[in-house]
Amino acid sequence: MISADLFPLRPEALAAPSSGIVEVFDYGRNKPGLLPLWVGEGDRPTPSFIAEAAQKSLAEGETFYTHQAGIPPLREAIAAYLSRMSGHNVGSERIFVTNGGMHALQIAVRMIAGSGDEVIVPTPAWPNFRGALEVAGATTREVPMRFGNAGWQLDIDDLARAITPATRALCINSPANPTGWTATLDELRAMLALARQHGLWIIADEIYGQFYFEGDRAPSFRDLMTPEDRILFVQTFSKNWAMTGWRMGWLEAPAALAPVIVNLIQYSSSGTPVFAQRAGIAALEGGDAFIAEQVSQARANRDQLVAILSAVPGFRLARPPGAFYLFFGVEGAADTRALAFDLVDHAGVGLAPGTAFGAGGDGFLRLCYLRRSEDVAEAAHRLAARIAARATAHA
Ligand SMILES: Cc1ncc(COP(=O)(O)O)c(C=O)c1O
């Protein structure tokens, strides 16, 4: 506890939720032989052709202040990538380069929600949605998703019932971290209709859109929207191009918002380093094959993991259609925070407890499977053995 007499702080800063993932991570990070599947990143470094573009930029002396919205060739390369990937034309005037997806989310939230406002977030969800909203003074209104034989499902009627006069936005992450849930086009249509009807914004996080295993890409709001729809897309270089440490992303928004977004970038980061932006151009222009490799590795790992764990009694799981996480439960283990510590100690596997992802996550654990397939198979066997041993001990 920080003493309010000694250090008086703003309530929004104090209320920022701490990450339930970090707690387990800190406990197990130095354990020899541990397979770390708790954080949301793969095990490959950024491809060298991307890093080389940054080195070249630095060698050429690109070390000065830059455009707040991003250098024009990067904004154009992002627009070209989005147009190619989605099949819909996206203009570069809609693109604003940020320091990672997290910064894009911060700016989106700053524009539309603050004290007294509510934003609806289906959970389990990436904890940073709640963090960004609450730091801005807004309230997160969770809509718990349900897990059944068909996997994770969001009831659109639950979403509609959560709307109040204070609601400003729906925050929709599809394919989702941590569940892999992916909205169908009809579900997206229903959500867009709700947003239009109630005058709400949509914060659309489709960063895992290429990590979709039932088609070339996940259904997207882009397939339904007009440029004037109140949709703010949060995006990142982190996952597609293995660039989590670069802190590179972008916000896509109606072009009319440019003056406001540029100011918010100026007063938060004042822009993204030019050498990193050059790397971003290289990634967008030459990275399609790398993405395809990662997606096919993720698909194979997902199938292997599900096959191994489904053969053992006690796991509650369904094959996730997207992203690169398995969010699973274990019969008889309601306290998955305690189970996450147990698995560090007795299975040598690091997982994130479901409680870190909001109310809908109780009783589940998240495993990130974007790694060498040998590691994923080994982790699955260790988990299966530990869960079987616990079941025998409790029988
Ligand atoms: C759903 C979701 N959105 C956005 C991000 C943002 O990533 P970054 O801030 O690394 O760009 C993440 C990272 O884990 C995520 O899972």
Quick tags:
binds pyridoxal-5'-phosphate, Aspartate Aminotransferase, domain 1, alpha/beta, globular, 2 domains, Aspartate Aminotransferase, domain 2, four-stranded antiparallel sheet, 395 residues, seven-stranded mixed sheet
Write up this protein:
This protein is of the alpha/beta class. It has two domains: 11-46 and 289-387, Aspartate Aminotransferase, domain 1 (Alpha-Beta Complex); 63-286, Aspartate Aminotransferase, domain 2 (3-Layer(aba) Sandwich), CATH 3.40.640.10. Helix content is 41%, strand content 16%. It has 13 helices and 15 strands. The chain has helices at 11-14, 20-28, 48-59, 72-86, 100-112, 127-135, 156-161, 185-198, 258-266, 274-286, 288-310, 336-347, 373-394, and strands at residues 35-36, 95-98, 118-123, 139-144, 146-148, 151-153, 167-173, 201-205, 231-236, 249-252, 315-316, 325-330, 349-350, 352-353, 364-368. A seven-stranded mixed β-sheet has the order 2-10-9-8-7-3-4, with helices on both faces. Strands 11-12-15-14 form a four-stranded antiparallel β-sheet. A two-stranded parallel sheet has the order 1-13. Strand 5 and strand 6 (151-153) form a beta hairpin. The relative contact order is 0.17. Bound molecules: pyridoxal-5'-phosphate (PLP). Residues 40, 100-102, 126, 173, 177, 205, 207, 234, 236, 238, 244, 249 line the site of pyridoxal-5'-phosphate.
